[in-house]
Write a sequence for this structure.
């Protein structure tokens, strides 16, 4: 059944969108890493099963969706972990670390929900906490073109949407210090999200558009482009 469900998901994605992927070379050859991505539309989770030709993927999903029968059923076959987004969920955290230790690949949207205004929202520190606690690398990933407005608008016209998925070099979050824990987690959360934002169109950068770290990364990217010309 799992094979059938994933085949259907991939077929739907293929019919609905044309996906362009870059940055495959930054993915570790095996599982045991965290892919942190922005969340523009409802198809984003399904994109993971279309873009990554691997079976070791799992995705944290808001607990509220567990009450939707079709998503609860699909979650069993697509390795969803239903998470309480508003309270510390230690059971889910232990399960995530356990799966990473088994060599599985985690796909997570640090914002916690999709962007209703089509812009990055301030991310929650859970991804930085998980990366620091587990020691597994984080691969920032940017998705562009998957906004619900665009996808469903084109479907009404029987057109495929163009979606880009861009990966960047993996990063490692150091262990959480005994002091200034909140500032540590905020700094590393912002680092992850700014690395996502730098790969997004300017219109989608939202909360991080004026972040000093994003401006540094944009300057570095411009410098590399200038050197290559």
């Amino acid at each position: 059944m799992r094979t059938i469900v994933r085949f259907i998901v991939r077929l739907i994605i293929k019919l609905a969108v044309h996906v362009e992927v870059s940055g495959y070379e930054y993915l570790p050859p095996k599982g045991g890493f965290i892919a942190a991505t922005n969340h523009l539309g409802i198809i984003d989770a399904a994109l993971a099963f279309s873009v990554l030709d691997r079976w070791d993927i799992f995705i944290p999903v808001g607990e509220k969706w567990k009450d939707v029968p079709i998503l609860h059923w699909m979650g069993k076959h697509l390795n969803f972990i239903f998470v309480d987004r508003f309270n510390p969920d230690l059971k889910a955290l232990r399960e995530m670390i356990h799966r990473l230790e088994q060599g599985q690949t985690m796909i997570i949207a640090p914002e916690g929900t999709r962007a209703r205004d089509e812009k990055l929202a301030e991310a929650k520190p859970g991804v930085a906490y998980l990366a620091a606690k587990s020691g597994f690398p984080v691969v920032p990933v940017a998705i562009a073109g998957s906004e619900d407005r665009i996808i469903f608008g084109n479907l009404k016209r029987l057109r495929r949407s163009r979606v880009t998925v861009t990966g960047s070099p993996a990063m490692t979050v150091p262990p959480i210090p005994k002091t200034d824990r909140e500032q540590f987690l905020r700094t590393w959360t912002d680092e992850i999200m700014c690395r996502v934002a730098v790969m997004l169109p300017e219109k989608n950068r939202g909360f991080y558009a004026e972040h000093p770290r994003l401006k540094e990364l944009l300057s570095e990217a411009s410098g590399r482009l200038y050197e290559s010309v």
